[in-house]
Structure formats: structure tokens, C-alpha cells
Amino acid sequence: MVNYKTTEFIDWCPSCGDFGILSSETMALADLGIDRSKTVVVSGIGCSSKTPHYINVNGVHTLHGRGITYASGIKLANPDLKVIVNSGDGDLLGIGVGHLVSAGRRNLDITIILHNNGVYGLTKGQASPTLHRGLQTKSLPTKNINDSLDPLALALTAGYTFVARAYAYDAMFTKEIIKKAIMHNGTALVDVLQPCPTYNNINTKEWYEKRIYKLEEDYKVGSAEEANEKMTKALIKSFEWGDKIPIGIFYENNLIPSYGERIAEHIPAYFTDPPSKQIIEQNRRSTTDISKLLKNLNV
Ligand code: SF4
Fold first, then answer.
1. Number of folded domains in the chain?
2. Quick check: CB of 49 below 6 Å from ligand 1?
3. Reported pTM
4. Residue 196 above 60 pLDDT?
């Protein structure tokens, strides 16, 4: 049996929600029987961005906020790969938010797993973009005066075709959501509520477990006509936060072409002969010939 966990020492704090996400993700890969050599996990910077070191597939630990850009390049160059981004709310919704939004416009077939804990854990607990205004977690000298971003609403309006929320300590439920996200043909966001026991003393395990409930409604778009209705329902549901917090799949639309399919409309050989299969060098000389590509594009 393939072991999807590496033997690296994991230096997250005891009881960190990241452990639950790591287990869910490796179990999801095992359940799907994903080929390790055809899988890449990419991250930015932060506690959760250490994830590529702990999963026994190809991995790239990149720059702050840039996980999605690396993942996009990898997927575009080799569309045969399964590409997963693991990063935190500070990374993806702070410095990297422009890339998070742009990813939705393209519907590139990648999975983004957002480790959402409301703080910048790696740098001692400053308020992140998902910490609600008025909260004062233990590292903050005063209450947070910024409004928070809602990752689900942002993803829905940016064009993501799979939008879900999970909870880090419910590893089996999170595993099932991650499996569906990986198999979805388009950009998928899984916002995982991830308690940070070291710095977020407000959104704790006990706090979440009093509030979380599982969505029962079906948010899958069955026809172009019902896309707006399902989107509106998902948006309304995404704003539910307080005494009750829903988790589950908020929106799934399999009718929008992926970015690869859009490229293949212009370059028919894209999937069979992608950039990763091109010979670009022989005897230390470039063999790159872009004339065919230019001809296809009618430049
Ligand atoms: Fe986890 Fe928080 Fe510790 Fe980072 S600081 S490893 S997010 S518990």
C-alpha cells in the first residue's frame, strides 16, 4: 500500500488543526489511488505551507502568496498532473488575494485547500484577513479594526466552479470534500476551518463544535438555467456565520469549460502534446520552435 505521508518531523504545535487537514488530504489521495508521480502539492509561506514536506508526492514550497501562480504554471505545462495548493488565510487572502481571485476567472483544473485559522500563526498570531472585526485574539494589543474577507463569497463571485467548506477536526468529512474537489474538472476551493490552539483563543475547537452543522441541500448546478439560482443560494448560505456555521459543498458547476479545454479550442494538440512534452534543448542548443504555435494562434 502506498504511504502518502513522508517521514519528515512535523513541527506544528500539538493539537493544531493542520494535522487534521494533512490526514484528510493523504487519506483522500489514498482513497483515490492517485499516482504519486503525477501529483504536485504547492504552498506559499506560513505554518500550513509546510504541508508539501509532509506529503509523499512531488512538492514545491514557494514564495509568500504565490502558491497559486506556481500551481498554475505547473498545471498549464503538464495538464496530466493533479495539482493541489495548501496555504493559509494570511497567504492566500492577504498577499496572495489577487492570484486567488484571478484563478476563478480561468477555471484551471487545480484544487486550493485554504487552512483558515484567522491569524498569522508562523509570525506569532497577528490578525489575518479572515479574523472578524471586533475580535481580540491573544496576541493582539487591541480589538481587530479591519473587516474580514469571506473566502466562500469571494470564490463564488470570482468564478470558482467548486466551493466548499470543511472542518479540520472532522477528518473523515474533510477527506470526502477534498476527494470531490480533486476530481472536479475546474478550480476548486476548500475552505477548511482550522483551529490554531496557540494563537486563536476565540475560534477554538469548542467554539466551532457548538456551531458547525452539515449542509444537506444540493448545490450542484444541473443546467445553465439554474446556475444563477444555485449561485444566489450558495452566496446567501456563505454569509451564515455566528450561532450556526454550515460546512459542506456550497456550489458545484461542471458546465463551465476548464482553462485547459479553452486552450485546446485554440491549440488542438494541447492535451496530447503539452509544453512539458516538448524537447527544448539538444546538445546545449535550444530546439524551441514556436512557429507551429504561432500558426495555430494566427499571429
Ligand atoms: Fe498550528 Fe497555530 Fe501552531 Fe501554526 S501557530 S502550527 S497554525 S497551532
1. 1
2. no
3. 0.95
4. yes
